[in-house]
Amino acid sequence: AIFSQDPQLKHIHLRKQARQLENELDLKLVSFSKLCTSYSSSRDGRRDTSDTTPLLNNSTQDRMFDTMSVEIEQLLAKLTAVNDKMAEYTNTPGTASLNAALMHTLQRHRDILQDYTHEFHKTKGNFLAIREREDLLGSVRKDIETYKSGSGVNNRRTELFLKEHEHLRNSDRLMNDTISIAMATKENMTSQRGMLKSIQSRVNTLANRFPTINNLIQRINLRKRRDSLILGTVIGVCTILLLLYAFH
User: Fold this and answer.
1) CA gap 12, 15 in Å, rounded
2) Is 2 inside a domain boundary?
3) What's the confidence (pLDDT) of residue 182?
4) Which CB contacts under 8 angstroms, 24+ apart, belong to 99-103?
5) All residues at 6 or more sequence positions from 9 whose CB lies less than 8 Å from its CB, including other chains
């Protein structure tokens, strides 16, 4: 009744409620942030251990996270409702002279609400991301342990497959090296063949230009053939004589 008679008292009461809710939200968000930080630290501390006991601490933190999330969401909803009531009050007849100050106050409370909402969703998102990542890593570690504790036959077979795969890779690499060497040799021989053809062409050119040199070369070739025939005849006669001597 008093609020309905004096709208200014109603506005003061709403501002008081808003401040009270903002103080509660501030304390809750600080505790909520500490909970998420301690959750991440406890996960990191257990990551490299081989303890197989249930993670009671993390289970308790999960329940606390869910409880605090609900409480913070409820406080945010209440603060939103109070801000809406203050917005309605600014449109009440008779508050035109105080409208600028009331709008400024309302905007400040809305900014605070927006900051708290953003901080809550950010912290909650980080917590859920950490929990999802750690659950995934835990599943991977479990699969690795299961694989390591598998039968010796499967491990031996896998090892043989890996060795065979490495052997095939080495063979393929060796084959590629051999092909590369063969291609380089072919290119070198082709280059030398071209050089020899060029030299022969130059010699023929010189011989055609200078007949005397050509005749001299032909005489040298005839003498080489004659010497070869004489040498072959002598060797043949000596061989026949040796055979006759050996059989007699």
Assistant:
1) 5
2) yes
3) 80
4) 102/11
5) 2, 3
